[in-house]
């Protein structure tokens, strides 16, 4: 059955037209920017960082969230007593099982403390959760078995489709908000209700403060993820995004169809699913943008932030 019987093509959805595995290899942006494992390229004529800033608002008027400022405190107060149910989803395949206990234990301490949270672990190895994590009040863990997905490219092609299926059953009937996070991350400081919004994206830590011409958007016109030179405000990481279940379902459906369409045509976007995520977020601007505090890499490119809240374990700086 077609996911979009009312649309002629996946592009109709993306552009709003109406119609009747082993551990990760280096991130694709390193290749796109001419970097090797996160080290700064030497030709600074190509990329010149802008002056450090801490903007509180996007050009379209929605908040950029820094966890400790007054606006974030107001956002936490707004959502704190509404009885919101939130899901936190992560994909665990192959050797990524080594990160699952650390991820969940740190989330128990720092992710939406005091709120109702369901953890959804999509995995090809349910035994990776043994021994079980002890959860606090109003916390629940659900394992969603998936087929084995050998190879990072294949996993990247299927991740959005897996998200669509998981939201359809069981997530869609169980929570109000869903956040998708890479499993090789650790929560190291409070991540509260300030992150909640209809459609939430996170600024890429290594591209924060960079000029628009440094963003590794897909540039091949044959790709459905292609971004023109006059498009785009920010570059977002795929390591954390979320929002209302209905909004993330729509996002994942569109991105999944475009990925499959490109694959059928022999096209692979250079940033894999992150390219399609950024294409979607250009056409459907986030209502809440999280600062790099919420997806931090310890690398030579990432600028300092007031607080590191979620830290990537798979992107530690080499010493």
TrEMBL record:
The record lists UDP-N-acetyl-alpha-D-galactosamine as bound by 96, 182-184
Q: Where does Mn(2+) bind?
A: 182, 184
Annotated Gene Ontology cellular components are: Golgi apparatus; membrane; vesicle
Q: How does it sit in the membrane?
A: Single-pass type II membrane protein
- GO molecular function, one example? metal ion binding
Q: Where in the cell is it found?
A: Membrane
* Active site (record annotation): 274
Write down the Gene3D superfamilies for this protein, in alphabetical order. Spore Coat Polysaccharide Biosynthesis Protein SpsA, Chain A (3.90.550.10)
Which protein, by its recorded name, is this?
Answer: Globoside alpha-1,3-N-acetylgalactosaminyltransferase 1
Q: Which organism is it from?
A: Pogonophryne albipinna
Lineage at the top is: Eukaryota, Metazoa, Chordata, Craniata, Vertebrata
